[in-house]
Amino acid sequence: MHMANELLSVPVAAGTLAIAAASLGLICRKVRRIITSDKLALMGILGAFVFAAQMVNFQLPAMPGTSGHMVGAVLLAIILGPHAGAIVISSVVIIQCLIFQDGGLLALGCNLINMAIVPTYFGYFLYKMATTGPFSPLRIYTGVILACVVAIEAGAVLVPIQAAISRVLAVPFSTFLITMLGVHFLVGLVEGLVTVAVLGYLQQVRPDIVLDSLPGKVRLSRKAVLVTLIVFTVVIGAGLSLLASGLPDGLEWSYAERPDQPDFEPAVANQDHRIVAVDDFHSKYSPLPDYSIRTSKLGEPPQQEVETATGWTSFAGVVGSALTMVFIWLTARILQKKKAAKP
Amino acid sequence: MHHAYIDKFAYQDSHIHRLDSRVKFIIVLIFTAVVISLPPTSLSVLTCYAIGPFTILVLGRVPLKFALKHILVVSPFVLVLALSCPLYDKTPFTAAFGPFTWQISLGWMRFFTILGKFIVTMSALIALVSTTRFNDLLTGLQRLGLPKLLIIQLGFLYRYIFILIDRAHHILRARAARKLRNLGTKAELKIAAAMLGSLLIRSLNTAEHVNIAMQARGFDRNWRTISKLQIRSSDLLFALTAAFFLLGLHFFVEPLLQ
């Protein structure tokens, strides 16, 4: 999600640069007070560690062929504290811009805010909030995964906002927002799982490093991972579909009607009688037309005017995401079987 | 060290390399701002602006293939977002080029402009970084007012990136040699966590050794480099040329091409 120069207008770029510079200045002043000079080398080398850690990739579950890697903002925030963590990740973003040319020079302000400052502080405080009270491994799990997901989502939400204020892209804001949220939900989930696993490993091998942040013993158990995954899917699915209610999604937007432009001509229109018949059939018999519960009887065309509660939209979101996951899982399973069957 | 430095061309020597890093940095910043503020239909002006970074790359003896390859590597995010423009913006637009005119949508114009701007500003950034040693750039940034703590942080980071990436490669090679098939999600995650954890522990150990060595040599929170910065007449000449180039394009060429 490295923002590029071209997706921003000059005022937005300048404004975010100013905000990022001011907050970095403040954080630097704060860090100088709390960090002794023998921690300086440590911070620098941990920044380099973030780069190296991004090279370590691993197979993602349910999606054969794709691999994930870790970003490390929350891990560093937990180990170093939020201020030092923010400085380390900021320096990583600056080096990514200057040495690896990832993200533009003028977009650096946006990138610093979206990927360094917001995620580290959000992640750290969420983690702290979730893990106060008596220690339990489940609490650490949910704390870390929640911190990772929300921290990364919080940064990802800012990207469409900055792009929308800049008015360079033509993508409708809602579509862009939902896409970013969806993609970064997965990213955050993977990040959370890896962060938990790394914390567990560190506690086994070098408990002194995580002494302050991890008061008890954390072990990876399949049940806990499954429970967290299910809870998160339900929560995020419900949240996302509340957002999605009423707004036509990206693909629909390109061919269906546009409420804001009455004279907009659909880019794709097919008047073939078979297709019209299938459409008709589909709208008459689908159980959850347009992600809300049917108000008309099966076999009758849906009544457009009836208001359906947003709760039903959320319900449709949860059911839909569950079905999608089942579908993805089955497809992956079949693909794997086929691969295995081949000699 | 099994991989090439990504900024190996910064260690060459040319007239461009000898310029003051502050001057180069500020000019690239202004250039980027000017380019991204161009209207979304000004494709032809962009090619004129492209002359700037092109000249610096050529004078700095940075291979163009290297620059283009780099731009390609970092382009996916921009490409996807730019591709959404033709999907949503279907206002008709007449494009004319020489004797040809054709009808396309405004969305495609925006797409090509975003892509063009991306290539031009990225090559300007590549021109800056591959003609300036990172230490000089850091000293310049420090003089421009970046906090000292951040400069130290960036200096360390740059010093150790390549070493730790090498270590990560070693660990990855060891895994590739031992793990011959997919072991299932839980085992894969556990292995990755162990790799990351041991990488982290090795980084912490390195940091401890480096810190002891630094304390032994009297480190006092000051970042001292041997790079000396001073503005010479060649820097003034370069700044003047850049100003003429930008002002000329903005006031004389842009109105012609609109």
List the helices and strands and how they pair.
The complex is a heterodimer of chains A (343) and B (258).
Chain A: H1 10-34, H2 40-53, E1 58-59, E2 67-68, H3 73-80, H4 82-98, H5 108-131, H6 137-166, H7 173-205, H8 222-244, H9 250-255, H10 273-285, H11 310-341
Antiparallel strand pairs in A: 1-2
Helix pairs in contact in A: 1-4, 1-5, 2-4, 3-4, 3-5, 4-5, 5-6, 6-7, 6-8, 7-8, 8-11
Chain B: H1 21-36, H2 43-59, H3 64-74, H4 76-88, E1 92-97, E2 100-105, H5 106-129, H6 134-143, H7 148-178, H8 185-216, H9 233-257
Antiparallel strand pairs in B: 1-2
Helix pairs in contact in B: 1-5, 1-9, 2-5, 2-9, 3-5, 4-5, 6-7
Q: What are its keywords?
A:
heterodimer, A: 343 residues, mainly alpha, Arp2/3 complex 21 kDa subunit ARPC3, 2 domains, two-stranded antiparallel ribbon, 11 helices, globular, B: 258 residues, 9 helices, 2 strands, flat
Task: Describe this entry's structure for a reader.
The complex is a heterodimer of chains A (343) and B (258). Chain A has 343 residues and is mostly helical. Chain A folds into two domains: 5-219, Arp2/3 complex 21 kDa subunit ARPC3; 269-341, no CATH class. Chain A contains eleven helices and two strands; from the N terminus they run H-H-E-E-H-H-H-H-H-H-H-H-H. Chain A has helices spanning 10-34, 40-53, 73-80, 82-98, 108-131, 137-166, 173-205, 222-244, 250-255, 273-285, 310-341, and strands spanning 58-59, 67-68. In chain A, strand 1 and strand 2 (67-68) form a beta hairpin. The longest helix of chain A is centred in the middle third of the chain and has 33 residues, at 173-205. Chain A is globular, with a radius of gyration of 23 Å. With 258 residues, chain B is mainly α. Chain B has two domains: 8-133 and 230-257, no CATH class; 146-216, no CATH class. Helices cover 69% and strands 5% of the residues of chain B. Chain B has helices at residues 21-36, 43-59, 64-74, 76-88, 106-129, 134-143, 148-178, 185-216, 233-257, and strands at residues 92-97, 100-105. Chain B has a two-stranded antiparallel sheet with strand order 1-2. In chain B, helix 2 (43-59) packs parallel to helix 5, helix 4 (76-88) packs antiparallel against helix 5 and helix 6 runs antiparallel to helix 7. The longest helix of chain B has 32 residues, at 185-216. The N and C termini of chain B lie far apart (51 Å).
